[in-house]
Design goal:
Strand order of the largest sheet: 6-9-10-13-3-11-12
Oligomer: single chain
Largest sheet: 7 strands, mixed
Strand content: 5-15%
Radius of gyration: 35 Å
Helix content: 55-70%
């Protein structure tokens, strides 16, 4: 894995500050004014010491005191303004960066999410995004603040006694040398800590999602060991990083003490020789005391930026992943889609797999047909629906909709005209009404209720205390699996697209409920092209045509009666009765 440097990471994410750079300029101005105010306060303190305190003159007190108070008020105002703007700008950057990464993630193909643990991706969208902000926004503001403060304090010290200033600044480079010495080790520890953070999140998420399996198979101890292993890895990385940072802090603390003692010692000698006043010594000591923290901050910022490169590298892995499909440069204008589908010699191989999932598949379907495509598990049937919805494009061959190749269509337009009901029952956080309505944003309550009735869901919905306003969440136990499946069917019915892709809509339903679903779907299918993926071969007699897929190829075509008499693959899958294969083999039904 290639290391990401600070400059490379900064150059990559700095463009996201566009639109806020004027505010960054205001923040920098506030920082400069605050540093000038602090410098002026120290000089006024020296004047008070020499002219008022040592002389015991009250008259000499009021002028410098009033000026000091005015400078303090000014410094407080610009400090508040600058810090408030810095926080607001930083959070805007985080918001923008997270939206940018999240939007990119949603365009990535399914295999990307199979290769990355979900908890780790969550950590990248949270902790790693915050680390980038520390580099690009807070890091810039902190660097500018420390640099200007150091310059102003150094100039003031030179103004008071240039020779003494030169003597005390000799040790300043030690801070930067120490920071460089520690940076590599801190970056490594930070990267390990972030990886461990993602692993912990993944283990917790997986354990909660599989709690039934954990309890049923007495895996509690195993899950605790998994969490303990990842937590210990995080602890080791966190402790190592903390030790390195603390070692750096203590080192520079000793260097600072040496510098201050040198100033005081030389100052005592200068005062005894009459070459320096007490006020000058105190002011000089204050400038040196104020000077070294900004220099130390510059070194610490270097360590922070170095640690942030670990987050930049992890986010870069996401942003460098390319979507498998994109919108065409010159899309075909929209038209009223009829739903004619055709696969022309389509072959497809998933990324990083050794063999094709589909090979030379050719078929055509018009609205009004009912075609079943069945075959053994792993034959490539579900891949057809992924290609049709353009999760992927064929390796070779072409898929057309109303004669237009799918890559020539905008993705939004294509998917608006395809209602997909995946095999997994997907429930959103929200009410039943909102879960159904997401099939067609803007649908009326009457439309939602009609879709629920068509999916045989209205009766059990209205029996609930809150009816359509009943809250749901992923993994909810408020409804049965069959009831949740009917809600997702209602969602697909509401979409009323010219092409329907239904993957196992009767899974989890008994035969009576399944028939209640099929009849509304037959009415909905009129004039539309529908892909229906199901294990339930009892639906096969309703088909106008059946295609049998085996080894990624279409090996048989015909009606249920014709294929049963051939004694081929379909007859073997169907067996003596449809129930014999239920739950054993996948079936894709195209009702077209």
């Amino acid at each position: 894995m290639r290391e990401t440097g600070v400059r490379e990471a900064f150059r990559r994410f700095w463009p996201l500050t566009r639109g806020d750079r004027k505010w960054l300029a205001v923040i920098v101005t506030c920082v400069v004014v605050a540093a000038l105010a602090e410098t002026a306060s120290i000089l006024l303190f020296a004047e008070l010491t020499d002219n008022a305190l040592q002389a015991g003159s009250l008259a000499a007190f009021w002028g410098p005191a009033g000026a000091w108070l005015g400078v303090a008020v000014l410094g407080a105002f610009v400090g508040y303004l600058g810090n408030s703007l810095a926080t607001w700008t930083a959070e805007r950057f985080v918001l923008r960066l997270r939206a940018n990464v999240f939007g990119h993630v949603q365009d990535l193909p399914p295999h990307f999410f199979q290769q990355h643990r979900q908890g780790d991706l969550v950590e990248r969208l949270t902790g790693d995004v915050e680390a980038i902000e520390q580099m690009v926004v807070s890091g810039v503001v902190g660097t500018v603040s420390a640099a200007f403060s150091a310059v102003f304090y150094a100039c003031a010290a030179f103004y008071l006694r240039w020779d003494l200033a030169l003597a005390t600044f000799v040790l300043a480079p030690l801070f930067l040398l120490a920071a460089r010495r520690f940076s590599g080790r801190i970056r490594e520890a930070s990267r390990d800590e972030r990886v461990a953070d993602g692993a912990i999140t993944s283990v917790v998420e997986e354990a909660l999602g599989n709690v039934v399996l954990t309890q049923a198979y007495n895996r509690r101890a195993d899950e605790e060991r998994r969490l303990d292993r990842e937590a210990r890895a995080w602890m080791r990385a966190s402790v190592r990083g903390a030790r390195l940072s603390e070692m750096y802090e203590q080192f520079v603390e000793v260097v600072e003490t040496l510098c201050v003692l040198a100033v005081v010692g030389i100052g005592v000698w200068e005062i005894s020789a009459g070459r320096m006043t007490l006020g000058q010594l105190l002011a000089f000591a204050a400038f040196v005391g104020y000077l070294y923290p900004p220099i130390r901050s510059l070194g610490q910022l270097g360590l922070t930026l170095t640690a942030a490169t670990a987050g930049a590298q992890r986010l870069g892995e996401i942003l460098d992943a390319r979507p498998s499909v994109t919108d065409p440069e010159r899309p075909v204008p929209a038209w009223p889609v009829h739903g004619r589908l055709a696969f022309h010699g389509v072959s497809f191989r998933y990324p990083n797999t050794p063999r094709d999932s589909l090979r030379e598949v050719t078929l055509a379907a018009s609205p009004g047909e009912l075609v079943i495509i069945t075959g053994p598990s792993g034959a490539g049937k579900s891949t057809l629906s992924k290609l049709l919805t353009r999760f992927y494009d064929p390796t070779t061959g072409t898929i057309t909709l109303d004669g237009v190749p799918l890559p020539d269509l905008p993705l939004d337009f294509l998917r608006e005209n395809i209602a997909l009901l995946p095999q997994q029952t997907l429930i959103l956080n929200g009410t039943i009404r909102e879960n159904i309505a997401c099939g067609r944003p803007g649908a009326t309550d009457a439309d939602i209720e009609h879709a629920a009735r068509s999916a045989a869901a209205h009766d059990f919905i209205t029996a609930l205390p809150d009816a359509y306003d009943t809250p749901l969440a992923p993994g909810t136990a408020a409804l049965s699996g069959g009831q949740l499946k009917r809600l997702t069917i209602a969602r697909a019915i509401l979409r009323a697209a010219p092409v329907l892709v239904l993957d196992e809509p009767t899974a989890g339903l008994d035969s009576v409920a399944a028939r209640q679903i099929i009849q509304p779907l037959r009415h909905l299918m009129t004039g539309r092209t529908t892909l229906l993926i199901t294990h339930d071969l009892s639906l096969a007699p309703d088909a106008d045509r059946i295609l049998v897929v085996d080894g990624g190829r279409v090996v048989e075509t015909g009606t249920h009666a014709q294929l049963m008499t051939h004694g081929g693959t379909y007859a073997r899958l169907a067996g003596p009765s449809p129930a014999a294969v239920t739950g054993t083999d996948d079936t894709l039904v195209l009702r077209l």
